[in-house]
Amino acid sequence: MTTFTDIQTTPDVSAPTRPSRKRRAVLTVVGLLNCALPTVFTLNITRMLLTGVHTDHRYHQATGQGEILFALWLVPIVLMLRAGWRGRRPNAALGLQHLSLIGAGIVTAAVAPGGGAPFLVAVISGTGILLWAALPTRPRLRMPAQTDPLLAPVALLCSAVLIPYAAGQLALQNAATTGFHAANPHFFDQAWIAVAIAVMALLAALLPAARGLASWVAGSLVVLGSAGLVLGESVGFHLAFLVLGALTVCVSWAARRRLVAN
Fold first, then answer.
1. How far, in Å, are 7, 84, 222 from residue 104 at the CA level?
2. Considering the domain boundaries, does residue 104 fall inside one?
3. CA distance 141 to 85
């Protein structure tokens, strides 16, 4: 049975089968294709954040353009590759996290197509398809649903705050027809991660196999809220993000205790 905090790899019922050399060679190539872009972006944006390049965009660098996006993007890829290399089935939560980010990117890029967002999402989607095709066994996506009574109201609260925030960011992106943000779609990035976090919160509340996504939701909200308050963004939204992140931590802990007790 998948535990609440296990979001990395869960062994399949059967013993893992060592992938062939050909399969591992394919995984290596596909892994490089999937990891190259987020790795380069992570190193570059982190360098900019630490050295003070474009200091007026530190908020974006710490959140949607940078650190939150890269964590949500790169970590599930690496962990699914690790599971595939070992011949194990990746945890369902990893697959759902990966698909949540891609799905949120497709939706937000369709609403705000400026600044090259559709091209970026197309690259992520295309390499993601190759990753799923290359895995010896893919994450299970058909699973029983069981709403968690603690996580469900928190997930709805998260959606009630994150979706309006995302809508506002998309409106700003569409309004930026000239200047820096027309070529650098930071507002799109903020909307992208907001929608992805909202989706993961709902999945964590609805699916026992995805409960571990609540930890990602909590961490992302705490970082997003803290960065916004420290770097002078709107107090209302970012205070709400911080409070919701802390609430999600508490509810996640309570849900885990209840699961262990049962």
1. 20, 25, 20
2. yes
3. 20
Q: For residue 113, with 0-12 CB atoms within 10 Å meaning exposed, 13-18 middle and 19 or more buried, which class applies?
A: middle
Contact between residue 198 and residue 134 where contact means Cβ atoms under 8 Å apart: no
Residue 13 lies in a domain: no
pTM surpassing 0.85? yes
104 with 192: CB under 8 angstroms? Answer: yes
Other Cβ atoms less than 10 A from the Cβ of 1: the count is 7
Rg (CA), the chain: 18
* pLDDT band with cut points at 50, 70 and 90 for residue 180: confident
Q: DSSP class of residue 54?
A: T
**Residues near 24 by Cβ (< 8 Å), separated by ≥ 6?**
85
Could you tell me if residue 88 is inside a domain?
yes
Q: How far apart are CA 212 and CA 199, in angstroms?
A: 13
Please give the residue range of the domain that contains residue 227.
21-261
Cα 199–Cα 202–Cα 204 angle in degrees, nearest 5: 110
The burial class, CB within 10 Å (0-12 / 13-18 / 19+), for 128 is: buried
Q: Residue 11 above 70 pLDDT? A: no
Query: In the chain, how many domains are there?
Result: 1
Does a structural domain hold residue 11? no
